[in-house]
Each structure stands twice: as C-alpha cells, then as structure tokens.
C-alpha cells in the first residue's frame, strides 16, 4: 500500500473545503485512525478515502471552538493571515508567521 506524505504540517492554519470552519493542525495520522462509529456517522456519499492523511485541528467557526478530525482531501490552506482564536492555541504554539504557527520545542 502506497501512502503519500502529508500535504499540511503541524502548526499550519487550514480551512475546510466545504464547511465554514478553520483551525490549526496539532497532530497528523498518516491514514484514518478514528472509530468505526465516527466513520459510519459520515453520509456514505461524503465519506473520504481512509488511505490518506487525517488531521487533528484546534478548530473554530463563528459560534464555537472545538477539536476536529478532517481528511486531507477536505482541507485547504488558509492564507488569510488571521490568527486562530481557539483558547488552546497559545498553550501549544508560539507566534503566527504567515499561515503557520511556530511549534514550541519543549525545554529540558
């Protein structure tokens, strides 16, 4: 089975291709790694291929903050330059530079 490298990276600001939310990536799964229940909750005609990267996002829309799990095919770069206001962003990342948050390196 061939797997492509992830198109997006940790700290990158992205938006959903079809739904009105955006977020910052905090983790990447090389292929689908969520529950079968989650998978089946997606209408069959909209289910993405499992064999692609899936991204964990600190997400926001006009009314709330949450964690989202999104397939690569449903994401696009957010080049607005606007920060993501999710309250956990400042706990995980440094400054926003363009469309990429600086990834904080743990100090020993």
Task: Walk me through what this model shows.
It contains two helices and seven strands, in the order E-E-H-E-E-E-H-E-E. It is globular and about 40 Å long. Strands 4-3-2-1-5 form a five-stranded antiparallel sheet, with no helix packed on it. Strands 6-7 form a two-stranded antiparallel sheet. The chain is mostly beta strands and 108 residues long. Strand 6 (93-97) and strand 7 (100-103) form a beta hairpin.
Biggest sheet, strands in spatial order?
Answer: 4-3-2-1-5
**Total beta strand runs:** 7
Helix and strand content put the structural class at: mainly beta
Mean pLDDT: 92
- Radius of gyration from the alpha-carbon trace, in angstroms: 14 Å
Helical amount = under 10%
Beta-strand residue fraction: 35-45%
Taking the sheet with the most strands, its summary is: 5 strands, antiparallel
Number of helical regions: 2
Based on Cα principal axes, name the global outline.
globular
Low-confidence stretches: none
Order of helical and strand elements: EEHEEEHEE
